[in-house]
Amino acid sequence: MAVFTEEMLAEAQKIMAQYPERKAALMPLLWLVQERVGYIPRDAIHEIAELTGTTPVHVEAIVKFYEMFHEHPVGKCQLMLCTNVSCLLHGADKTLQRFKEVLSIEVGETTPDGLFTLEEFECLAACDKAPVLLVNAVELYERVTPDKVDQIVAELSARYGNGSGGTAPHAGGDFA
Amino acid sequence: MVQEVLIVKRRVGIKNSTDIRVYMEHDGYKALRKALTEMTPDEVIEVVKASGLRGCGGAGFPTGLKWSFVPKKVFPKYVCVNCDESEPGTFKDRLLLEHDPHAVLEGALIAAYAIQAEKVFVYLRGEFGKPYLIMKEAVRQAYEHGFAGRNILGTNFSCDIVIHRGAGAYICGEETALLESLEGNRGEPRLKPPFPAAVGAFKKPTIINNAETLARVAPIILNGAEWYRQWGTERSPGTRLFAVSGHVNRPGVYEFPQNIPLRDLIEYAGGVMEGREIKAVIPGGSSSPMLDKETALKVTMDFESLQAVGSAAGSAGVVVIAEGTCLVKVALRLTKFYMRESCGKCTPCREGTYWLVRVLERFHNGGARPEDIELLYSVGTQMQGNCFCPLGDTAPNPLLSALRIAPQDFEFHIRHQRCPEDMSA
Q1: CATH number, domain at B144?
Q2: Nearest 5 degrees, angle CA A92-CA A93-CA A99?
Q3: What's the pTM value of the predicted model, to 2 decimals?
């Protein structure tokens, strides 16, 4: 099944025109697919290889190298919790523990309802607000101590859960 | 109490500071106009050189000198703006990108004029979703007002701006890894020489500058090199954005002359939390070796002073660690960071970080042996200077400095098979 629609192909042409070599459009095209589909399906790897004049194995290596690209579907809300030094000094390890308890999942897993994926992230460059939680790479929650976890999960469930009609914010591949 | 010197921070806090009209009301794009209409490209390079401006990303390389290495007669040429800010403890570029994106763009366009580049690539780390949306709008406005695109300000200088998003890889902050990432490859550093100034993006002459470095260019062009040199030292002139976090009462980004005493900086950031004593301080991002309390209280923050005490000014990300913190915990977390972020290209880094984490986990989880301290030293010191790029060379720094500052923490773990922090918890 083709992942790239007519509209996406037109978008891809615009992206590729910005670079002196079409291969450079590889990461922007992966962002485009991930924004539209939520992850990078196998077929998209072949299509992007074709578009950029590379090989599927090269595109796959890029997907695996950069940790924000997903080879499999992830939750509607990606919880990216920083546990690096400044956040650790403010108890991020305990915050992470609380997220695992409240969501009943381990790091890297997705809740059965497909709503949350929990990820342990490296420094998010917001150390003055430690511990920090980034949702879908856009929305930043500050000073996320363990006592705030229940409330954050409840709030995000209400906004993006089944029946809410909400779509999680995403700074995806909109490069137009 | 010391006073901040606001050069690149001066528009932060102004209402709608990301809007180009507000930026222009506060001297915005005046320096670009001055450069394009009153100065030759070489004159621009000379002013930046004379100012002594040094790169704010970590390495501190003189900016004007870097620009002067670019061959004159090879085209096309490129400018890359390094907004891959990922060094643990560093959060100053985010401040500029979220509050003053045009300052970064104006500096990049002046740099492009100075080396006669036809395109600026703004490389933003993937996690910077909000800065990305802000930057995208800023680029749109810059085109709309004729500061980017064809015949900028009616001159014959043309330059395009392209935003390129990373996707979660610390190594892409290393300039040649950034170029690989830009070209659609894994972010693995290149062998130097050739340096990017000669053979860079798409094999063409390229300069790569940190976002804060470029934000400093417009004020220097407007006010002159001598004006900039009134602050700091001969070799570290001007100001820097110091990002202070960890165990302080008022964490934040503060702009001071480069040679501010660390002690004053910590005091300005509200002092150590709960009146605790300093145990260690990371002065320039996690790759700079931690300082002990005694050194932290007497050192100044300029490049040469921190180098003299065996550390580095790096990215100016200051992390204050209070007494009562176990440095084994800190060392393990930071070493894990380098393990996760190692690109895997060279063996000492790929294997070294992995084995350091394996041994440190014995301290954390139980099972550490007395001889493990010697083992950590051995692996760590063999990595230093033997890796392909600075990531691996500096990866053992948190651990080796922790071993020097707090050997008692490591010994406690061996003797009691638990963390000293657990007593106070």
Answers
A1: 3.40.50.11540
A2: 85
A3: 0.96
